[in-house]
Design a protein that fits this description.
The protein is mostly helical and 129 residues long. It is built from two helices and no strands. The protein has one domain.
Length: 129
């Protein structure tokens, strides 16, 4: 028995709704990915700038200590700076792990989007029959 026009129209409406939902979900996920990408870029740029400033300050302090013939460099101050730099490196490592998690979430979102697209294609095929 062939599907009725009403069945066909119902399937077509369902297909249209699914396509609209898929498009909306894809747009939403793309916007979310763009926001995450920009936030990550800004964070890493800030960290890079901060690290560069600290390296510059440490280099200036080192040059000053070398030029200072009256005394030795303040080892405790240098150790404090070194500890702070190590803490920042640990933070960068944590941020890289977070970035990996964000990339995994984006991949999952893409997979979900592809599944929805496959479902739409299946419904299109079904409606065409």
């Amino acid at each position: 028995m062939a599907p009725s026009q009403e069945d066909f129209d119902s399937l077509k409406d369902e297909k249209d709704k699914l396509e609209a939902a898929l498009k909306q979900e894809q747009d939403k996920r793309l916007a979310e990915q763009q926001r995450l990408k920009e936030r990550t870029r800004e964070t890493f740029q800030k960290l890079k700038d901060d690290c560069n400033a600290k390296v510059l300050a440490l280099n200036q302090e080192l040059e000053k200590a070398k030029a200072d013939s009256n005394g030795s460099p303040d080892v405790s101050a240098l150790q404090t700076e070194l500890d702070a730099a190590k803490a920042e490196v640990a933070e960068v490592v944590d941020l890289r792990a977070e970035l990996a998690n964000l990339k995994a979430a984006a991949a999952q979102a893409q997979a979900t989007s592809e599944q929805l697209q496959q479902e739409i294609e299946r419904l299109k095929t079904e409606a065409a029959e």
